[in-house]
Every structure is written in structure tokens, then in C-alpha cells.
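Here is one chain, start to finish.
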Amino acid sequence: MTKWVAVLLMALLMAGCGGADDPAKGAVEFAGRMRAAGVVATSESTSSTVTADMTLDWAEYNFADLFPKALGQRFPDIEYLGVVYNARAYVGPWGTRYLGITPDGRIFGLGDFTNDVLQQFDDVDYWAARVLADQCKVSPDSCGTVSLAAGGEISLNDGVSLLVLEGSGSGDMAVYARASGGQPGQIVGESRLVSYHYTITSNEFRRGGLTAPMRVSIPVAAALVPPHADPTDFDVQVYNPQTQEWKWVDGWAVFEPGTNTVSFWADHFSEYRVVHSVPSDQERYSRWRVNYDNFSIIYYTPKADTFGTEFLFAPPPDASWRPVGGGVESHPEIWNYVEDLNKALDTSLSYYLTIQTSTQKKLFGKPASAPFVRVTHLPASTSGGESKWGMMRIATTLNDYSELRRTATHELFHVLSDQYYTVFGAAYNRWFFEASADLWTSRALGMTREQQRAYLGREMVRYLKVSLDASDESSYYAAADFLDWLEKKTGRAIVADVMFSDYFNDLSGLDAIVSATGTSLSDYYVEYVLGSSIGSHDFAVPLVESVDALTNGNPGVREKIQLRHLSATGKGLRTDLAVDGLLVVSSDRSAPGCTLKTFSYASDKPFVSDTTKYLELDTPAGKPIVVKHFGKPGTAGVTNSGFFQIIINSSVTDSQHQEYELDAYLLVPPVMQISNGRVDFSHGVAYSSAQAPIAGFNVYLNGQKLNSSLLPVAAHVFFDSPIQAGSNVVVTVVDKYSNEWPEVPRASVPLHCSMAIHTNVVLHNRVIGYDDLIEGFDHYFDSPTPGDFSSPVFSVNWSSDGFFDRTDVGSLRFEVSADQTHILSFSGSLRESYLLRGDSYYWQASGGNLPIHLEGGRAIAVLRGAAACSAISKLEYKTYAADGSLHDDLKSFSCDEASSVRIVCE
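Its structure:
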């Protein structure tokens, strides 16, 4: 035995006796690095398949600088004092570093990285999920690789194979599989285990991450398969290490005799096993088959009624079923539960055969042969029934005829839908497969809207938060409501149309058929999400993932949110700061396929559709969304204390899935102290260095800014002699987007305006029958009454100068906005009368808006050409005959490119 092994083993023994309790600094740092290096567990995996060598290999991969693989000396089977250890040594300039794992899975390190103090780094169980997640990186040869885009079937370790559908994703996926325990032949409940436990993992495949599930095939023990076994008598169970329970995998598993494998569809990777799901004790049950006109029903009855025995595979006896059943008792030797099931199936079949497409084509035909229906024991997770590929299973534990009929109707829709789906198609389109079944079940049963909401809402934990077509049980049942809403919105049989068109990808089919109506699926999806989350749609969906509180120590929030196609989320903000602040939200509205709907609300007025104002509609492109007067409820000046933003990725495919970034912060008015000749101020809140939103400060006295340039962020005092104690001083904070808070009343600036309009005018005289061109016609607006930007209302007189003398004929009212948009508007009614070739002409003008800009205290607007004509909304005239009668209706001036408007206010 080498010296280092002896040292290591002695240290291990000391650790077992309580030695080296206090970890050295190096050990603490190493432990932190180990935790940081690991990825979050990607599945409900178990540590039973993770060996000591796998763990040591993982450490060499993740900490190559500490444990170089090329230098590692292996001692996998060292026995000392009756204990076997798996250990490795790494000799280098640092001396010797050691890693060792005891048979019970404890991991120990010793060397310079622990200051030569033996330190335990948890155990194999602690690191198992992370070791498995990295297995394909650490040991690529142990994994199979398949292209998610091209699809294909790959063979993995220990007889496991995997089929990936074309178009499941992008890039290559490496998958690891291993037999990890279990004893075939073991009795599990009333079933028999017919396979080992198999652990499958891949760091690229996470729950909900892909649209399509993958078909997994695992081997079973041929000797345990009964002769002439029904391929549907098998089930797959998945292990949950958190609850330490085996759960049934949703959906049927199918035995393939040629390969002695059982195949099933998985939407995540974990530890699986196969059981033969017929009664393990054949002497306890009799098997019956009843052939009806449309269905063939198989069920079991107990051979003996032993007190205290639970017969899971038998339907409830007539005595207990009759009070809650459907009342069918046509044959004394057939259990009422079975007769009621046939009644429910027949009733639903009659309804389903009437379904038509938008072009009045029948969707379903009657099955060529009677489908098999098995009444058997099923796990509670199946909701009472299962169906695939023309076969059906109904649980023995349904509570009454209403539940029996609902379950049978749902499963029968699946059986009929198999006319349009291959095995692969049903798996690929599972969301549509389930949502359409729920939709038509609710219609076949004549549910009221209240009943329909309750039925569809039983599974909607993640509804809308994952892609519409994700294989997610907590989402796709509720998607039936979207399909129902879509049909009512379009007035078309959309669901039947998609199925009848037989698209391989139902989402693509839905997109194509809906888009043909003139509105895209993306637009409809946005409308539905808004209606069901904050609108008046009665199938309410809670989208808020979290509501973050802004505080003194954390006045800002920065968060990245990944949104896949056709999914949505909600983000809320509130504040406990008793300030009248300005909330600034920088949202990536330019992300393709991304739609925002943002609004704020007062604490006592929760957001509802009739009071919601979408803030981004009033926000110029490229500018952040701002909410004025945002603060703690009850604070003076505060009118908004809540903020909510809905983020929707309305793209139809994942080629445009988004990583959306929310960046929000609260601008807080600086705290001031005014004294003669100076003002001291402080910001009062601490932003993170990552956000750093503040650009500087401004100082105002009586509404006039005193500083010529922005005061730097580090500034805390400003000197100016006009400032006196008690002065009207305001210090504002300016952010990186030039938002300034608090608002400062603008100083009163008197304005005097003059306006000139030059037009070329063509007048048509119907009496004489020819046109006159009157050129150089100038009109003047001048002699205004004083106005200012704080109350900018004034009027000017109207006069004209053309072929006639200049005369005053009326006045026009002007308003100039006080904000930074600087829009001048005018309105009023003017009349000018003159004679031209015996006709009388009346002029009038009303309404208009002109953008203006400020130049040295002057407000100037200059427009030329067509823009000038359109800015003056009306310059019109009427013609009258010499006797005073109306000759022609109101006519507009004809302006050409020589026309111009100039306004100067000073």
C-alpha cells in the first residue's frame, strides 16, 4: 500500500471518530466551487445509478485545475481494516491532492486546497443529479447523440433506445441511459415488475422545453411476459425522489413482442420501470367480455368476496353503483357499471358523428370495427381514463354516472381522432389532441358555460405561461378554452377544420387556417391573453409570476424572463416608499414577436378592462415607460402605487423565442436643505451598480434653472447667490433617459404672435364659366393679446391684402402647449366679404395644429407646400349671385407648393 493511501485512510478513520471538525479556508472555497459548478437538476432523477467512479470523473471534468485527469492515479479497490475505498491521487508542484469516496458514498478531499485538513464534501447522493446532468460531457462515449431538428432513433446503454421526432428542437442532444436497480418479478401492488429500473438523463432536455415528447423503449424480461400477452397490459412508472414514490406515466405503454421492449412517450427524463398491469393473482378475478353493437367491453369481477379485501380491478358492484349510476339494468349478468359505460359511449358516438367542418363535411366516420374498452384499475393521475390507437381504458373508481359519461366521452373523442393521427402524430400534437377532446366533451355533454369553465379549469396551473402547444399537463387541457374562444371569434369550425386538413403539425395547421380569415393567429392570441388575464373574459388566468417591492435599499429591479412562442407572463411592481416618485420601466419592445401591455393603478382600484390605460401606447418608440406620482398609498401627490406588465411572445414558432429583460427603477425626489447662497441635497436611495440609472441633478429657483450644465451624480451641494433661505428652490434628479423628477412649474413667458399665410387660389365662376387665378394672396394675423406658456391663450386679428384694400375682418384664437411637445393650435370663425365679377365671396377658417420650436424665447413654426395647406384645416369660400342668392356651395381653396405658413410668437 502506498504511503498516501495509508495517510488518506487514516484521515478517513479520524473523520469517522470526529477528527478535523473545522474546515479550513481552502476546503470552504472548494466546496463553494463545487456547488457553483453544478447545474440545476434537470429531471426527477435518482442517485441510485451514480457510482463513485462517475463522481470522481465528474470532479476531474469540472475542476481540471485541481484534479488533472492526466495525473490521476486510481485506487478503486483499496481495503484497510475491513473497509473498501475508491480513491485517486494527483501529484504535482502543489504536492499531492487526494479525493476518496467511502462505500456509503461520503466524499473526502485532502491537500493544499484544504490546507492539509481532511474535509468532507457532502456525499454522492448530494451531487447525483448534477453528475448525471453532466454525464454526456464528462464521458461522451457513454451517451448517444441525436439531432433534434432531423430526428431519428438512437441506441443507448443496457438495451434502451430513444426515438426523436423531426423538428423537436434545434442542435444535437446527448442522452445517457443505465440500468440502475430493481428486481424483475417483484410484485408491485397488484402488478408485477417486468424490467429493471432504468435511469435516463440529458442536460439538453428539460421538462416543458420541447414541443414534442420522445418515444423511449426499455427492455423487459421475456420470461415474465405471459403467453399471448395483450400489448396494452403494460404500464410505465416514474420515480420521484422528493416523495420517494413511483408514479404512473400518463398515457399508454405498448409491448412490442419482436424486441421484448415496452415503448412509451416521455416529456422529461428520469428513472423508469415497467410493470405488467393485469391482476397478478389470476385466481382472484374472472375476465369478461361483452360485445355490443358499437363497442367491445372487457372487465374483471372478483371470484370471491372476502371481508376486508379490496378488488382494485373490479368495477363497483351493482348495489353500490345503482344509487349513483345511469339506470341501465338490461342484463342481470352484466354489471351495471359496464352497461352504463356502453350507454355513455353510444350517446357520445351519436353526437360525434354529427360534427362538421366549416364546409359542412363530416369530421368522423363510424369505426370499421368495434373499439375495445377495458374497465380496469388505473392510477388517480389518469383522471379516470386513457385511450390511444383505437383502444380505451376506463377506471373502476369513477364516482357516478356523470363522471363516467364525462370520462368515456373524452376518451371516445381520442379513439375517433385516431382517424387523423398516426402514433407519432398523436404524440407530436398532444396539446391539440387533449384540448380538442376537452372542448368537444363539454359540447357533447351540453355543459353550461359555468360547468365548462370548471371542467376546463381543473388543470391550468401553467396555462399561458408555457407555449400553447407544449406537452404540459398543467396547460394543454385548459387550451380548449382558447379553441372555443377562437371558434366563436371567427364563426368557423376551426377545430374540425384543422383535423380534417390532416396537418402533421396541428399548430401550423391552426395558424394557416386562422390566418386565412384575415387575422393572424398571433393577433388572436394576444387578444385572448389580454381578455383572459386583465379583461372581461370569464376564464380568468393568473399571469403574475411575482410582484417585487421597491424599497430604499432596492429601488430598482432588473430581471431576465425567457418566453417561448405563444406564451405569456406577468410582472408586477409596488413600492413601500412614502415618496411622490417617478417609475421608469425600460422594456425591450423591439424584440420580434413580443407584445407588451403595461399599466399602473391606484391601490384602491385594481386593474380592470374598463379602467386600464396601456402606457406603452403613449410612449414614443425607443423611450422607456414612465409612471408619474408613483409611491406608497396615502402619500401626498401619489396617484399610482401599482404597476403591472403583461409580456406576450406571439410568435408561432420557437425560432423567435425571447429572453426579455425588465429594467425598472423609482426616481425619488432629492432631499434638500436650503440656506443663503446654497442648497444641499442627497438622493436618499441606493441603486445597484448594475443599474446606475442616475445621470445628474438640476437646480431651479422660481421655475428658472440655475445650473448651466447637469450636476454630476456625486454632487451634493450647489452654490448661487440668489438662493436664500426660504426661496422657492427645487432640485430634480435626471436619469439616463433624460427623465426629470419632480416636475418643476415653468416660468411665465409672455408671447406675442403674428401669422402670415400665402396661397395661390383658383376661383371657379359658374355664372361666367371660366376660372380666375388669383396669385399672391396674403393674409395676416397680428395684434395679439398677451399670452404665456403657463396660460398660453391669446387671439389675433384677421386681415387680408390682395387685390383689395387690407381690412380687419375678424379674430382667431390661439393656444400654445406648455409641455415639451410645443403644439400650437388655432380655432375660430372668420368672414371676409368682397365682390368679384358680380359675385360675393365669403372667407372663413377654423381649426388646426402646428408643431413649433423654441429659438431664443421665440416660438416659431414654418410650413411650406402641402404641409401648410393640411395644417390649416379649412380655408373655404361660398359664392352668391348679384341678387344675393346662393350661387355655389362651400368650396375649399386650392393650394399648391408655393403656399406657406409662418408663425412667430415672441
